[in-house]
Amino acid sequence: MSRWAIGIDLGGTAIKAAVVMEESGILTERSIPTETASGPAGVVVQLASIISDLYRGALLTLDPERFAGTGLGAPGAVDAEKGVLSYPPNLPGWTIFALRDELQSCLKREENLEIPVILENDANAAALGEAVFGAGHSFRDFLLVTLGTGVGGGIILNRKLYRGPNGTAGELGFMIIDFEGEAVHAGIRGTIEGLIGKEQIVALARRMIEASPTGSSVGLLCNHDYTRLSPRHLEKAALEGDELSLAVWNRVGSILGVGLASVVALMDIRKFVIGGGISAAGNLVFTPALEQIRRSTLPPMHEGLELVPARLGNKAGVYGAAALCFGGT
Amino acid sequence: MSRWAIGIDLGGTAIKAAVVMEESGILTERSIPTETASGPAGVVVQLASIISDLYRGALLTLDPERFAGTGLGAPGAVDAEKGVLSYPPNLPGWTIFALRDELQSCLKREENLEIPVILENDANAAALGEAVFGAGHSFRDFLLVTLGTGVGGGIILNRKLYRGPNGTAGELGFMIIDFEGEAVHAGIRGTIEGLIGKEQIVALARRMIEASPTGSSVGLLCNHDYTRLSPRHLEKAALEGDELSLAVWNRVGSILGVGLASVVALMDIRKFVIGGGISAAGNLVFTPALEQIRRSTLPPMHEGLELVPARLGNKAGVYGAAALCFGGT
């Protein structure tokens, strides 16, 4: 019988959790709103309760002897060894918190359960999820790129998570590709996230529309209220052939490609799995990105270059958190 | 008694070789001009002859039982497992060559010696040299930066060489920091090497001198013949207080710092060992580089940032080549 684990993705908006089978993937899943107002202690109670629910439910059909534990992906800097989470963005009021030990204690105290918990950064967990259950399965080494509000990354080397010496590796969005440019984001000039984060893509489109003499059909999609303009509108218009929207995506892909060329040069990684909400634009971004990687790297580095869409969508986090328990790292 | 090995650094100008003791470093060393005109076969004979000389000389005082083998660092892409060197720059006429096996055969045929050879890329060997015998000894993880004609790098993770999935990792000079800038180098826009390679530093200084209303005292050092201007002149003038030369080094350091900030973001490496001819400028480059890394990274990544000069100079290659034989990787 397959081993099973509980995977949890703790976010600022929702706690997603699932019972994951090592062989076949998600068996059951839950999602509840994160009670951010109740602070770390309140969130720990929420986590313990959802783990307890899933665990007791699973025992109706699954063998407790085959239970591999609980993995928990959380935003912010994670010391995986100590189980400590530091300054998670989107969780107001959290500073430095021994999340793993607090959760294990709470499980014992409130739910009478002794369950081991493994804590990991959420982007790392997502990368591991794609590595074990998703688009990265056939790659020994790859970078998971998350295109969304921000631009994130998770690195898999030799099928294992690469955390870096201090556990903060994979911050693709904070690589710098335009050090003399105008974009300053989080106080740093010319970062990838500062150029193609979600808001920055929309702002780029607005600038291009303003500067365009011929205009764009994307205006029809947002009733010419450009404060409502979204990447979805740009995606739709581009697929309908709108030149300006196509130009926006070409530029987004090209900027991403420049960044990934630096990853090729430094780490010799040539496989890229692209996820996150913005990646819904698919080949509108992927094609120019791959072309740009080729233009921006030396020919001996072109062999084996691949850029593929992520497969697990917003479930990569729970998959990866569970994979932590299967020794996927 | 200490183990010993022969380390060789094959360059386009010279072959440097040494007998290296595991505990105490270089015992004896040689340097001969590389006979590039004689092609791969001729260079292999040169290598075999210098190895034989060093080996037989060493046996006068050293125990053959403690001999760990020969390590060979070479420019270009190296497949360390297969012992194959591909397209080494500065070795005209070389394409893809089974250097390790050819050298072992030649040692047997010409010198009647059965000596195992380990082949490695020269920048990687230099990084390993600094890791085992030099400035990187106290760092578990670091990037060796080589500032010279080009800008190179070698990555040490967990005290071992990080070669990358295809053996081409560490190409710091081909990371892109100015994708919309004017500098195009080896066909790629905005690379670090295209901005602060040796020639590019001199060209930057010339542009700044031309644009300067007040001029620079560096002209005195090259007899106002700016075709003869060198980084050494700029170093000397800066140390004498010449504002323009100081500004040149500030800019070089700042550009290096931007690139290293991307290394911090992606790999979470926070220790940098700086070598190569240009690194003779020392704090003229190091100080603005470290300041720029801080400006260009998020505060949580500042902890533990260090930037130190390499210690082995142009001997890092032979040290590292020997270290390959001591299981340093």
From TrEMBL, chains A, B:
<dbReference type="Pfam" id="PF00480">
    <property type="entry name" value="ROK"/>
</dbReference>
<dbReference type="InterPro" id="IPR000600">
    <property type="entry name" value="ROK"/>
</dbReference>
<comment type="similarity">
    <text>Belongs to the ROK (NagC/XylR) family.</text>
</comment>
<protein>
    <submittedName>
        <fullName>ROK</fullName>
    </submittedName>
</protein>
<dbReference type="InterPro" id="IPR043129">
    <property type="entry name" value="ATPase_NBD"/>
</dbReference>
